[in-house]
Amino acid sequence: MSTVNYDRLERKLGYTFKDRSLLELALTHRSFKGKNNERLEYLGDAILGYVIAEQLYLRFPHFKEGQLSRLRARLVKGVTLAEIAREFGLGDYLKLGPGELKSGGFRRESILADAVESIIGATYLDSGHDVAKQMVLSWYQERLSSPELETTEKDSKTQLQELLQAKKQDLPTYEVLRTEGEAHAQTFYIRCTIPAEGISIETSGSSRRNAEQDAAKLAIEQLGK
Q: CATH second-level architecture of 7-147?
């Protein structure tokens, strides 16, 4: 039996496992000896895609298939899932092999994203479709309500990344300076840095994602001057 205390993580997830071993398995990367989360990831990926597709279909009856597909891809892509994982502090709970530990695997976007999908799969096995669906919707509540979804244009972070890539410059870095407030009403303070352009922008938001998007938008404006 694991000695890790998952109480805090479960509170952040908004779900308490009846079978904690499923949560532990969901957090076990393939680099760790023994069983890993790859099968749970496969299951969670399918559930996540369905839940988000259904919500977009219901919320945007005027959108065509291509628009809905682009929105779904934006919401379930690795970058978004890794953002969710960081909001939960998931990296602190991952079980990684020695090699991944040394190389900072607990920060790697793909590993974090896979763990989020695995937790969805584990929740489905633990309590069924309806509970897993409600958990996913609670995680995505802010993202699904974002005015940005009214347009299928690329978000500010993506636009900034592509702008810098076109100029053959390094991608921007986003650093969390601090967080303030209770867990249910936190404010995230972040810094976006683009060394090659001498740009350093600090913003705040109700989530890390919002703060980073605001910073990217300001950076694009500065680059356009």
A: Orthogonal Bundle (1.10)
Per annotation, catalytic residue among 24, 41, 45, 100:
45
CATH topology of domain 156-223: Double Stranded RNA Binding Domain (3.30.160)
Name the pLDDT band for 1 (thresholds 50, 70, 90).
very low
| Active-site residue flag, 150 | no
Alpha helices in 77-108, H assignment, sequence order = 78-88, 98-102
Q: What is the pTM of this model?
A: 0.67
Lay out the sheet containing 199-205: strands in order across: 173-180, 187-194, 199-205
Average pLDDT, the chain: 89
65 given a catalytic annotation: no
Q: Where do the CATH 3.30.160.20 domains begin and end in the chain?
A: 156-223
For 56, list phi and psi in degrees, rounded to 5.
-65, -40
Pick the closest to residue 87 from 209, 197, 220 (CA basis): 209
The Cα-based distances of 30 to 34, 118, 211 in angstroms read 8, 12, 32
Cα 220 from Cα 212, distance rounded (Å): 12
Catalytic residue among 41, 83, 114, 117: 117
Q: What is the pLDDT of residues 139-174, one digit of tens each?
A: 999 888 876 676 655 678 888 888 898 888 888 999
**Contact (CB, 8 A) for 89 and 9:** yes
